[in-house]
Amino acid sequence: MHAINYEAPSSLDQAVSILKTHGENARPFCGGTDILIQLRAGVRRTEHLVDVKKIKELQTLSFDAKKGLRLGAAVPCIEISDSDVMRKHYPGLREAAHLIGSLQIQNRASVGGNLCNGSPAADTTPALIALGARARIVGPAGEREVPVEDFVVSPGRTVLKPGELLVELLIPAPAPHSSDAYLRFIPRNEMDIAVVGVGASVTLDGDKVKAARIALGAVAATPLLAGKAAEALVGKKLDDAALEAAGHAASAICKPIDDMRGTIDFRVHVTGVLTRRALTIAAERAKKN
Amino acid sequence: MKKTLVEATINGETVEFLCEPRQSLLETLRDVLELTGSKEGCLTGDCGACTVLLDGHAVCSCLVLGVEAQGKKIDTVEGLATQGVLSVLQNKFLEHASLQCGICTPGFLISAKSLLDRNPKPTEPEVRYALAGNLCRCTGYDKIVKAVLDAAADIRSQGEGKAAAR
Asked: Which end of chain B is more exposed for a tag (fewer CB within 10 A), N or C?
């Protein structure tokens, strides 16, 4: 790897000031599970790594029944998969964090890092989108919030401008009778990159759908919110016909690549299958809430 | 490139060392501190041969920077034996012939230690899950899993023995 500078500020202000000073030549550094590989491979270049793990706001995982979840951008995946709050209120997002890599990776990797890496196949990003998460960003020009579905702009690129830092993910409190689920297809049992990933959240009103969100990973240049597929479910029973329609609508917006891990046809087909299954699981969970 | 002074607790000892910010913890352990037990396999976090404990958590030391060790506690395979006496886990690996070429062994030992520290009575699936980030191309894993289960049982019975002696 080429020479770099390393700084580990302990406050948000310090971090923003360092990032601002170095602009495009600096990059926030968290678990290192993507960036160190990319720097070694020459896929990315940076002169300054700014380690954000010592900043309190980025390490906070706190839940409030009214305000929802604040998930610090640097909270490691292992903390999410071990959390009872996540298990109870956001099981789909927990599943996504739980199936990233090995324990060695989960001990270092974060949901915030997964998002900032900007991969279309990131597992936790569709789970965040399904939950209606917003990214709280701090930078030299102040603060802003961006819906997670708008965060990744192309493979490996995000809305973050030089000097900006993802501080936390803000996730709404779960509505009564709601829940979420995340499923992915990989050609082996564990530890692979999603060929298709689907996140879904469902809110029920009796036996009918009151609200739903569906998000897709690895089937386009960025993670996608399948808005129409979810909206068509509102007011309906989640029966076979409704699930079939949602699956078709989700498949219809896919623009996947064709590679050795999955052909276009296969990815489009699997998107429909996983959409139906994720909705079913989310609805089963929602009945219990 | 200017080197950074890092102070860390490595295998229970306070150690000061100099490293470049670009150097991985693995590189630092092996080339600066001459702790060559942790192995370089893939350098991408896939194989687990470089697994060490960072503040008690198993991590791939190839994906940690040496400078990140500042103020941290690091445990490597060199810390498992006490004054030349192998740990229970190490002995069980020998007993069950859980290694052939041996490159993956330090990583497996550390991942297994990490599991047994948290869960003294793991099931076989739990052992397999905890070791899933470590690749072995020689043994087919069965002998490693058996050694870890056997070590867990031994450590538990030793604990009970100690409790009874008290």
From this structure: C
Q: At what angle do helices B142-165 and B88-95 cross, to 10 degrees?
A: 140
Q: State the angle between helix axes of A91-98 and A264-287 in degrees (0 to 180), rounded to the nearest 10.
A: 130
Location of structure tokens 């996540």: A86
pLDDT tens digits, one per residue of A54-88? 999 999 999 999 999 999 999 999 999 999 999 99
Which alpha helices (DSSP H) does chain A contain, by range?
Answer: 12-22, 35-41, 77-81, 84-89, 91-98, 103-106, 111-116, 124-130, 227-231, 240-252, 264-287
CB A236 within 8 A of CB A208: yes
**Which tens digits make up the pLDDT trace of B97-152?**
999 999 999 999 999 999 999 999 999 999 999 999 999 999 999 999 999 999 99
The alpha carbons of chain A give a radius of gyration, in whole angstroms, of: 19
Look up the pTM and report it. 0.96
Residues shown for chain B: 166
CB contact under 8 A, B63 and A31: yes
CB atoms within 10 A of CB A254: 20
**Interstrand relation of B13-19 and A61-64 (parallel, antiparallel or unpaired):** unpaired
CA B114 to chain centroid, in Å, comes to 7
Top residue of B28, B53, B63 to mutate, by most chain A CBs within 10 Å, is: B63
State pLDDT tens for residues A200-241: 999 999 999 999 999 999 999 999 999 999 999 999 999 999
B54 touches chain A (CB under 8 A): yes
